[in-house]
Structures are given as C-alpha cells and as structure tokens.
Amino acid sequence: MSDFDMMGLPKNLVARLNEMGLKDPTPIQRQAIPQAMNGRDVMGLA
C-alpha cells in the first residue's frame, strides 16, 4: 500500500500512479491533496 492509497484517492488513479513509479507523494502533495479531497480550494508553490 502506498501513501497515495492512504490519502483516499480513487483506486484507478493510485494504480496508474504506481504504474508510473510514483509511490509516495511529494511534501506539497501531502499537504494539498487532503485539503482538495475535503473540497477546499488549494494553491501551492513548490
């Protein structure tokens, strides 16, 4: 199970990310994805 799985992303998206070799979110993704999943507007600078 990847960190993307634990974020509650759709399974097909997580599967595709894994196929692309993306197992762990970046620090900004760790902060932004949960906010976006909760319906909040997100603007980030990485």
Task: Give a verbal description of the structure.
With 46 residues, this protein is an all-alpha fold. The chain has one domain. The radius of gyration is 11 Å and the shape is globular. The model has no long low-confidence stretch (mean pLDDT 92).
Q: Would you summarize the structure shown here?
A:
By secondary structure, the chain is mainly α. It has helices spanning 3-6, 11-19, 27-37. The chain has one domain (3-37).
Query: Which class of secondary structure composition applies to the elements?
Result: mainly alpha
Helical percentage:
40-55%
Proportion of strand residues? under 5%
Q: Indicate the overall shape.
A: globular
Low-confidence stretches: none
Elements, N to C (H/E): HHH
Integer average pLDDT: 92
Kindly report how far apart the N and C termini lie.
25 Å
Q: How many domains is the backbone divided into?
A: 1
- The tally of strands reads 0
The largest sheet, given as strand count, sense and whether it forms a barrel, is: none
Radius of gyration: 11 Å
Number of helices: 3
